[in-house]
Amino acid sequence: MKTLSRVVINLSAMVALSMAAEQSFATTLPDTSTCVADHTCLQFGDFKVFSLALLNLQAGGTATSGPYAVKDSPGSILNNVVIGQGNGQSGAGSGIDGAYNVPSANTTSTFTTATTALGGGTNAFTGDTPGSWNATIGNLGLNGGPLVVYFGYNETGGSGLLNSDLLVWAQVSLYNYTSPSSFTVDPTQYTLGYTTAAPSLTTLPDPVGATATSVAAYGWVYIHSTICLDSSKQFVGFPDANGSCAYLGGTATGIQNNLGNNAAAFAIDSPGLDTALNSGLWNVMKVSWEMAYLNGGAETAFIETTTTIPPVNVPEPMTIALLGIGLLGLGISRRRTRSN
User: Fold this and answer.
1) Which of 15, 130, 180, 182 has its Cα between 20 and 30 A from that of 204?
2) Greater model confidence, 159 or 217
């Protein structure tokens, strides 16, 4: 009976471990080391950007349902670390700023953390600085994993660019400190954009005929509300100046990244930033963020610290159960053999 008891205990522990492992990770994104070559992500500055709508379609789902569907409504992300949303909230915990109030209802066409007030008040801490969103790295709960930012795209169109397109720039800076006012002079910085300096909101690129290439000189990343796929659901480019994908050989169709206020549109990760965040060399993370040509609902940006990149192979619960049953049978068999 001792053998049987030991097997049952081991089975219970293995099932519990499997359930815990499955619940630990919200989303499994493609491998960032190959995603550009595989056409599952695009490189912008130091960051890899994934279209969640594209990944869902390639997995057999729809733009907003499938293994890569991530909700981004205020109630859904309440327990996440939120950088910005339509109704800014207080800090997600000790040492983390509250979320910025991102413009909605066409109140303004631009947004910058440099001049926008934090929503829900601030959560001041050592290393917290005005004009940016800040968090102490030790309170982010990375546990050696990647830091993935999800971006909710919520526009109604008419912004001056094609359809509901946007311009975005962001920079993450890492600091260490020895006292509340003593920071490293030369922090490590990671930029979602083409320049290390924030683009000027007073000198925006001409929206007529704007493309990713034409706005790059201004430091912006051109965010397309529509992307073009071929018949095998592979990314092949962006719409032409008329918003059509037909020019791409006649077989391309457009899908929406502008998914509204219930589904995140993009997942953003920087492998270099992940390494630095988990190195133990830095204390504070600072985020500067700007957008232009806004028109519609509020965009959302929040951090998911339990995303795996690349996939972690965890046995399915049924596999664990079958394995446990086999071990259980083995224990019973051994007991019978000994009793005979």
Assistant:
1) 130
2) 217
